[in-house]
Design a protein that fits this description.
Radius of gyration: 24 Å
Largest sheet: 5 strands, antiparallel
Number of helices: 11
Shape: globular
Order of helices and strands: HHHHEEEEHEHHEEEEHEEEEEHHH
Distance between the termini: 47 Å
Number of strands: 14
Mean pLDDT: 86
Oligomer: single chain
Helix content: 25-40%
Low-confidence stretches: 1-5, 380-388
Strand content: 15-25%
């Protein structure tokens, strides 16, 4: 049966290559063959992602108004890239109100609204994923393309406002009033490529200004960009036994490919040795320690090493550092202090909260002392926490 269907499926797939429907483009994107779909149109996958696949039914202000007969309701894209619904009197609604509306107009608006929500969520998530990948790789766009992509599409423009961008050694952001640097001064785009900025390449005072920028505006980035802890192997030792004694759950490894962490094999209670681990930019041995109900097999990382310390390497080190600190908080193990340099105040505050919940009094005292000594002039960040 399967073999008899294969020619039909091939014909169907070939026919789809000539369809202009967005759902078809989405299909080829999911099948990892968007490049082939783009090629027969004389373009490339990146261009389609930046144009047709990122198109949403919103006006230049990020709005779409629905007429329900008895009133109009406007869907509006917020600064944090979510949709809210606003009645004509300014009241924020959870959804389109059915009460009192014209039945046919409501039914039509509801269907259109459902499509809009789906499209916006899909476009925003995909773009966040692409930017995060560029954050780790250091890839970017030429300045002209960047300007077109992130100023002419309202959804991508809102995304761009949550990211710090970089040209050479200069960083900037797209604000409601145009491009600005970390001091709020106008930034003039140069001819240099535009990449996603990374704390490893920022000046310390520049980074601190960006952290304050997001906090004071109440904005959370889609990933830890300006909050990514940074380590410098030239000034600090990143030893092979950095994570000695830290038991890491299988759940902290699996489905973390976007972070550069890969697991092959099955988490089988009877055959844990079938699991293998790989990391982008990092070498490490992973040893099975024990099994705990609820989290599965637990492992220890040892003999870590790397050839070049890159953005990707730093990210995985930061990821495992966080797991290790949390593990030591639970044990009330004050040796976690050795791993704290590089973490931002927001992250230290999260560790403090975890220590309070775990009643880890020794660790709590160390964390409070470290916070007060390291961040004496940054108290406005005290109540800010991250979604890890």
């Amino acid at each position: 049966m399967v073999s008899s269907m294969e020619p039909v499926l091939r014909i169907f797939r070939t026919a789809c290559l000539y369809s202009e429907y967005k759902c078809v483009m989405d299909f080829f994107e999911k099948m990892n063959d968007l490049e082939g779909y783009a090629r027969i149109r004389g373009t490339d996958a990146e261009t389609l992602r930046d144009t047709a696949l990122s198109a949403v039914d919103l006006d230049e202000n990020g709005c779409h108004t629905y007429d329900l007969g008895n009133q109009t309701v406007t869907a509006r894209l917020t600064a944090e890239c979510t949709l809210v619904f606003e009645a004509s009197d300014g009241i924020i609604l959870k959804s389109l109100p059915k009460k009192g509306s014209d039945e046919k107009m409501y039914k039509k608006a509801k269907a259109e609204c459902s499509n809009l929500i789906n499209d916006v969520n899909k476009v925003i998530k995909k773009r966040f994923d692409l930017i995060f990948s560029d954050f780790l790789s250091g890839s970017g766009k030429d300045a002209k393309s960047w300007l077109t992509v992130y100023t002419e599409n309202i959804a991508l423009k809102q995304v761009a406002k949550l990211i710090v961008w970089q040209q050479g050694d200069k960083t900037f952001i797209l604000s409601d009033n145009g491009m600005i640097d970390s001091r709020g001064n106008e930034y003039i785009l140069t001819a240099d490529p535009v990449i996603v900025a990374h704390p490893m390449e920022m000046q310390a005072d520049d980074l601190e200004h960006w952290q304050k920028y997001f906090y004071t505006k109440g904005l959370k980035q889609p990933f830890e960009q300006v909050w990514e802890p940074v380590h410098d192997p030239e000034t600090e030792e990143i030893s092979g036994d950095r994570y000695a004694g830290c038991l890491i759950s299988y759940l902290s490894f699996v489905d973390e490919q976007k972070h550069g962490i890969y697991v092959e094999g099955e988490d089988d209670e009877d055959f844990p040795d079938s699991l293998s681990f790989d990391f982008d930019g990092l070498y490490a041995d992973v040893y099975l320690i024990d099994f705990r109900w609820g989290t599965g097999w637990r492992f220890e990382i040892d003999n870590i090493s790397f050839k070049n310390y890159t953005r990707q390497t730093n990210h995985i080190i930061a990821y495992f550092d966080r797991l290790t600190v949390m593990n030591r908080v639970e044990k009330d193990d004050i040796s976690l202090v050795q791993l704290l340099p590089g973490f931002t105040l927001a992250q230290i505050c999260d560790f403090i909260t975890a220590a309070q919940k775990a009643n880890a009094v020794n660790v709590l005292a160390q964390l409070l002392e470290y916070k007060n000594k390291t961040f004496p002039d940054f108290d406005l960040m005290e109540k800010f926490s991250l979604d890890w």
